[in-house]
Design a protein that fits this description.
This protein has 245 residues and is of the alpha/beta class. It has a single domain (3-244), classed as Spore Coat Polysaccharide Biosynthesis Protein SpsA, Chain A (Alpha-Beta Complex), CATH 3.90.550. It is 35% helix and 24% strand. It is built from eight helices and ten strands. It has helices spanning 15-26, 50-53, 70-80, 99-109, 145-153, 167-172, 183-194, 224-244; strands at 3-10, 35-42, 59-63, 85-88, 94-95, 115-124, 128-131, 139-141, 164-166, 197-208. Strands 1, 2, 3, 4, 5, 6, 7, 8, 9 and 10 form a ten-stranded mixed β-sheet that branches. Helix 5 packs across helix 7 and helix 7 packs parallel to helix 8. 40% of the residues are buried. Belongs to the glycosyltransferase 2 family. One of its GO terms (molecular function) is glycosyltransferase activity. Keywords: Glycosyltransferase, Transferase.
Length: 245
């Protein structure tokens, strides 16, 4: 039976959000014959989430036992993944019921595509949802489109969390890059230089906005310029290698 591995890096202080993420997974409507596992990797020196995940029989929990950061923790989860596809779900976000099925269907219908990005609504307190327009036309995303957009605009045109990827493609690129910021953007840029992707036309991901969100912390701007420089350097290196092939 084909398997999809949902990867979540978790923090002890977000137990309530993590439960909501698990409930959104329990409501998934998978294509016939498919199943999923929820690979949760807790980041931090004092593991605290095993009991929180006990009500979810599809959860496979482990803990770092130290603080490693999002990218490294996600890579540890990737090591534990048994699925032919992986899907990224942050511990404070939620999926709509068709999220996994939509991505699975695209990857089955488009064997040339290695990754699927989704549309998302911002999720605020009280379940208030606000949409934002996509930066790319939904459908097949040709090779190099994401990188060119990043060079032209300085930010990503697709939601980097909520990504569904063929597991072999992620592993071939070494997983998520050890950057202080933009570890997921660096992966998506590299993926799209090597393979086409696909942007879903429908909203399937709820991206939570809250005061404890990592990107809203005062420290977030620090090291962001260096991280974006690393993304551009990776893109330039990939294109130079391709030109010389």
């Amino acid at each position: 039976m084909p398997l999809l591995s949902v990867l979540t890096t978790a923090q002890a202080g977000r137990a309530g959000f993590l439960v909501e993420a698990g409930e959104s997974l329990a409501a998934q409507e998978l294509p016939e014959g498919w199943e999923f596992e929820w690979v949760v990797q807790e980041d931090g020196p004092e593991p605290a989430l095993a009991d929180v995940l006990a009500p979810f029989p599809f959860a496979r929990y482990s803990a770092n036992g130290e603080k490693l950061g999002i990218g490294t923790t996600r890579n540890v989860a990737l090591v534990r993944a048994g699925g032919e596809l992986v899907h990224v779900l942050d511990d404070d976000d939620r999926l709509l019921p068709t999220a996994l099925a939509s991505a699975i269907t695209v990857l089955a219908d488009h064997p040339e595509v290695a990754w699927v990005a989704t549309q998302a609504d911002d999720l605020f307190q009280g379940d208030l949802r606000l949409p934002y327009p996509p930066s790319l036309t939904p459908g097949v995303v040709d090779r190099g489109v994401v990188g060119t957009f990043v060079l032209d605009h300085g930010h990503t045109p697709v939601l980097c969390v909520g990504l569904t990827v063929r597991t072999d493609a992620v592993r071939a690129l070494g997983g998520w890059v050890a950057l202080p910021r933009g570890e997921d953007l660096s992966l998506v840029v590299a993926l799209n230089e090597l393979t086409p992707g696909y942007l879903l036309p429908e909203v399937t991901y709820l991206y939570r906005r809250h005061a404890d969100q990592i990107t809203r912390q005062a420290s977030w701007p620090a090291l962001h310029p260096e991280s974006m420089t690393a993304v551009r350097q990776r893109l330039a290196a990939l294109r130079a290698l391709a030109a010389g092939a």
